[in-house]
Amino acid sequence: MNAPTVVRILYFAWVREMIGTAEEEASLDAPMTLEALAEMLRGRSAGHAGALADLSRLRVAVNQDFTRWSHLIVPGDEVAIFPPVTGG
Amino acid sequence: MIFEIRIQTEAFDIELEYQKLMSNDKRIGAIVAFVGQVRDTPLELEHYPGMAERQISATLNEARRRWPLLGAVIVHRYGRLDLGAPIVLVLTAGAHRAEAFSANEFLMDMLKIRAPFWKRAPGGWVDAKISDEQYADRWNIN
Lengths: 88, 142
Fold this sequence. Notes:
The complex is a heterodimer. By secondary structure, chain A is of the alpha+beta class. Chain A has a single domain, classed as Ubiquitin-like (UB roll). Helix content of chain A is 25%, strand content 31%. Chain A has a five-stranded mixed beta sheet with strand order 2-1-7-4-5. Chain A has a two-stranded antiparallel sheet with strand order 3-6. In chain A, a hairpin with a 2-residue loop joins strand 4 (59-62) and strand 5 (65-67). Chain A is globular, with a radius of gyration of 12 Å. Chain B has helices spanning 14-22, 51-66, 97-114, 130-137; strands spanning 2-8, 30-37, 43-47, 71-77, 79-81, 86-94, 117-121, 124-125. Chain B has a single domain, classed as Molybdopterin biosynthesis MoaE subunit (Aldehyde Oxidoreductase, domain 3), CATH 3.90.1170. In chain B, strand 7 (117-121) and strand 8 form a beta hairpin. In chain B, 36% of the residues lie in helices and 32% in strands. Chain B is of the alpha+beta class. In chain B, helix 2 runs antiparallel to helix 3. Chains A and B meet through loops of A and strand 3, helix 2, helix 3, strand 7 and strand 8 of B.
């Protein structure tokens, strides 16, 4: 099996709606911080730019665990970006 | 000992879950039941499959480290839910009430900030409440 070269990115709730998709990919040549990933994604569309404008309003998870925007991601990671949760 | 977590669209049967827990272990002397339900307007709940189970499971493990639980059932629903519909069930069992009450409150407080579910009301997405973070902070998690 070839080593993965992309990260999978999932969006939920209003982030998913603004961006217009529930899931996409990004190519990754080397480890990158989530902040840098968000900056890259903002360039993809006006929806991305709007949804990801203020990271303090959002939460992020890597491989289904909450983490910080300074976290380094590597190819093969599953990233999820979403608003603060409101279950229960 | 039964420790069970389920994420589902269907309604849950509180009596059935209670019987399952209670009849399983004769050391159980106390069961606390919490039900969260839809108020004010109907809701649609979205969730992150996989992460929801993972986060609730981690929280349940943390509860078991803190209290001598003899069982627990956690059921969280998603999808369209009418006014008054039950959303979440947390049953906690112990030999005595103290651990059952404390663990139940802990589980709900943590679920509120960790379980990846989002509520949408007819007027838009429901905002997270600052008070939920404060409730969770009482438990001195890092």
